[in-house]
Amino acid sequence: MTARRHILLTLLALCAFATAAQAQLVFTPDTWDFGTIRETDGRVSHTFTGVNRGDSPLVILDVVTTCGCTVPDFSKKPILPGEKTQITVTYDPANRPGSFTKELWVYSSEKRKIATLTVQGSVIPRQKTVEELYPVDAGGGLR
Fold first, then answer.
1. How far apart are CA 58 and CA 28, in angstroms?
2. pLDDT score, position 81
3. Does pTM top 0.70 for this prediction?
4. Torsion angle of alpha carbons 38, 126, 31, 25, nearest 10°?
5. CB of 25 within 8 A of CB of 115?
6. Closest listed residue to residue 117, CA positions, set 81, 85, 79
7. 106 in Cβ contact with 60 (< 8 Å)
8. How distant, in Å, are the alpha carbons of 26, 79, 87 from that of 51?
9. For 85-129, how does the pLDDT look when each residue is reduced to its tens digit (9 = 90+)?
10. If DSSP states are collapsed to H, E and C, what string results for the chain?
C-alpha cells in the first residue's frame, strides 16, 4: 500500500509541475461591451491586450469565433514571458438587429485553448425598404 501512495504522490507532483510550466495568456478585461450601435454605422472594433504570465514563450495558433460576423486579427509572433500581445476583434452588425454576445477562443501552439474573449452589445436596426419588407412582386407594382 505504501508503494502505491508513493507512486500516486509522484504522479500528482509531476502533473502539478507540468501545468505550472505551461504558458498562460491573460487578457484584462476579457469582455468588451460595444453598447448600443446602429446598423447603418457599419463595423465596430475593439483591441484586447493580453500578457504571457507563464514561464515559457507561446504562439497564438488560431482564434476561433462563434459567428462569421466577428473577425479577429492577431499576430503569430512568439510571445515571451511577460510580453504583451494584441487581438483586434471586428464585429459587423449588418442584418443582425438586436442584442448579441459573441465568443472568441484563443488557441496556442500547444493546440489547447488558452483564453476566451467575449464581445457584446445591441444593434439598432436600419429602416428597411418596401422591397425588403415585401420581397415578392405580385405584378403591377403590388407587393
1. 18
2. 94
3. yes
4. -100
5. yes
6. 85
7. yes
8. 5, 8, 11
9. 999 999 999 999 999 999 999 999 888 899 999 999 999 998 888
10. CHHHHHHHHHHHHHHHHHHHCCCCEEECCCEEEEEEEEHHHCCEEEEEEEEECCCCCECEEEEEECCCCEEEEECCCCECCCCEEEEEEEECCCCCCEEEEEEEEEEECCCCEEEEEEEEEEEECCCCCHHHHCCCCCECCEC
- All cell numbers assigned to 14: 509531476
**Quick one: cell of 98?**
438586436
The cell 504522490 sits on which residue?
A: 9
Confidence of residue 140 (pLDDT cuts 50, 70, 90): confident
Residue type (1 letter), 128: K
- Cell 464581445 locates to 119
